[in-house]
Amino acid sequence: MAQRDEEHKLFEQHRICIVCTDSLPLEHAEQVCRRSPSYGQRWISALLRSPSSCRLTPCFGFEPTIEEYGGEPSIHQSTPTKEDTAAATHIISNTINFETFDLACEALIPVVRPSWLHESLKRRKLSNPRHFSPDPRLFMNDVVVCCGDIPEGDKEAIVAGVLARGGLYSQRVSGTVTHLVDLTDTSDKARLAQAKKLKLKIVLPHWFDDCLKLGQRIDEAPYLLPDPEILSAGPDDPLRRRENKGLNAASTPDPSHMPDMNKKPTPHSSKGEEQRSVFNGKTIMLSPDLRIGERLLESIQSVLESGGATVTGNVYNADWVICRFRDGFVYRTASRLEKEVGNLAWLYSLMIFNEYTRPLSKLLHYPVSRTPIPGFEGLKISLSNYVGEARIYLENLISAAGAECTKTLKQENTHLITAHGTSEKCTAAREWGLQVVNHLWLEDSYIKWRHQPESDPCYSHFPPRTNLGEIAGHKMLDMQVLERVFFASEDTESQSPEPAMQEKDQNATSMPPPELKQMDDENAPAPPQDTPQATKKARRVSENKKIETPIRSRLLPDGKENDTPSSTSSRKSKEAATARLHEYAPDFALYEKERKRRGGVIFGGRRKSDEDRVTINPKKRRSLDPQEESENEEVKEAKRPKKSRLEISMHLLITGYQKWVGKGNEKKEDADKRHLRDLGIMVVQDARRCTHMAAPSILRTTKFVNALAYAPAIISTDFITECLKQDKLLDPKKFGLVDKSAESKFNFSLAKALKNAKKNNNQLLKNFRIYCVEDIRGGFEAFKSIVETNGGQCLLYRGRLGLTNSSRREESDDEDSEMEDDEPGRHEWDRIQTCPSLDQVPPGGGEIKKTPRILRVDWLLDMAMSQELKPAEGYELTEEMVDKE
């Protein structure tokens, strides 16, 4: 009886908080918490019949509860309050996605999965909570490993790695073991497991080795005995691809549209239990840096209020703050006050799944930075072997990190991120001397906000028969890094300003509800670069103060002459030497890249038979900087000299150049672009960067129309042909574009349009809101870029789809495709719906008093080409005109 009393005090003085989720429903939580009124009678009856059966195990199908062992349980259908969290000794949850998880970690309160409770009851003592943590960073937390006939050194390494990552080790094969590590399925332990029909997996040691090298758990399938795929598959066999469910609604930081609430999935709910909204009781603020329109703002507010939330404009009253960027008063204040800060993608994810997730658990559910990661400026990164949501996620993550993501791999690229190391891109990248890494390098750089060394073995490891796209997006942000870099308290105002200043600041920085007007431009958030720069400065000052502190004055008497000098000068010398090495790093990398090209690049580069290949005299020493190469380098007569690369004198945007158009001309295009760069001409794709634009004639391509808004010098593509032919930079003024027939056709003057563009300064369509139908010819994105380039706002219009013409030609994704059609009557089927000036829109989201006009695409194109506002008359499309068609 004494032993039974001790066992029934297993949870005495323990306050156990249970957080209900889809996988831990309310009924199960109540079952393990509450004392059954008939339990005493059942236990006594069972004791009289069979005393040995009435231990801590369930009797007659009844499972013992926390209360019956002296514990104080509490059940929470949503996030427990801070008071409940602080009072708990253990928190039971299948996930870390509840708001007070960080508070529990700071207070050293264990967060465990329900299996901790069952294991403690089974063993009749409290189990180690670390091995039952739901934290995904402990990726071995649900692994119980047993080792078979493997070398002792491998056994020690595997056991140590599993224990360090949250797993458990068992010496014997039992029902709790999940993985048996062995070299064959015929060993003693493997046969025992098969004889007992235990539900465990027999894997090769290679699986643990690959998991520990990556710091992520990968699928065991290729390592399972008796026929492991890593040993039987050939090098050219295709890899299987598994769906990455961890990236649902988490692949972009800036969603283009609000989710359809009528089609959202509903989480599992108990019978008779009304589904609780994730927004119930929350006060939510939408930051002004979201820059969303009134209509979308009204829709979001409607969904939040229908879920029981309150939308506020005061950051101090908000529980959750929705921001776009990691800067400004609202973001820094909310972060310092430890409020939940996420972006629109996170908010939409909560709307879709109606289940709370922490914004830090997904890299793109947290606001992004306007400034790039230090060291990522100028990086050009290409992707290989990633598909679906994983590819979209990595493309957006590259942009959020401040680098450029290219669809194709070229020699000008700096990095190739690949899911496995067996592809043509990987072979070419290695021969070109590019950095070939997996996506973990990008994620770690983004998390630590620092360029991680590509030489780390973790980033160049590619497990055989595994596509790493399956584990993309499984990493979490580090709050300590975010605090140090983006909202450290040293760089801005104090955390608790005076009440008068609070009122002033909240009026200047809060997002107003739909019934209020948008804020003025002068009240916009502070420039983004202030926070990171100020933070670095504060860190440097802090570090210098620590170095200069006379520590020895507290330990040595004053006036002592033989005290040892401080190590400050030594550390400064090391820091200076390290800084110089960082300055020389690009030269070293360029030298290694050029050195590997000796004899020509075998795959994907210039071959000996290429016409444009330049051969260097091997007896001459080559400079590390291509711009410092001598133009008068002596070579043999049979070889052409290597010309130095001139400084960039123009940024050229090219459209409609026929010599590059067509399949099979990609190599010629690359060679011509390299040749032009050697002459000082940088070919760009962004109209904002161009100083000159080359075209064979006046065109209505996206590049041409967008470039007009920036008023570059427009020249003929003959300039490119002659420069390549004469192998020198010619005067672009002699190749000005003249196309009188096109000017007459489109009824505008090119010279006057450029003059107007300089005057407009990209504000031709300021305060215009233009709606384009989804299937507009040329593509919605093309017209959106034209409108936004000219200072307007372009939105997608999905209404009245019944008017579409079934014979309309398909959209074109080519930027050089013409957005016009000379067939009569075709224009009437492409519609643009325009709204009046935003200043005319009444406050409060009321109905627009003026009827929006439905116009043909020519209205927008004619204005963008001439850089003049055109009256709507003559372009309007009426119902009568549509009916006649």
UniProtKB/TrEMBL annotation:
Gene3D superfamilies listed in its UniProt record: BRCT domain
Basic and acidic residues bias spans: 540-563, 633-642
Domain BRCT: start-end pairs: 66-134, 134-225, 376-446, 642-737
Positions with biased composition (Acidic residues): 812-823
Matching InterPro entries: BRCT_dom, BRCT_dom_sf, CellCycle_DNARepair_Reg
Region described as Disordered: 226-278, 490-578, 602-642, 806-849
SMART domains cross-referenced by the UniProt entry: BRCT
One GO cellular component, as annotated: Cul8-RING ubiquitin ligase complex
GO BP term (any one): double-strand break repair
Protein name, UniProt field: BRCT domain-containing protein
Lineage start: Eukaryota, Fungi, Dikarya, Ascomycota, Pezizomycotina
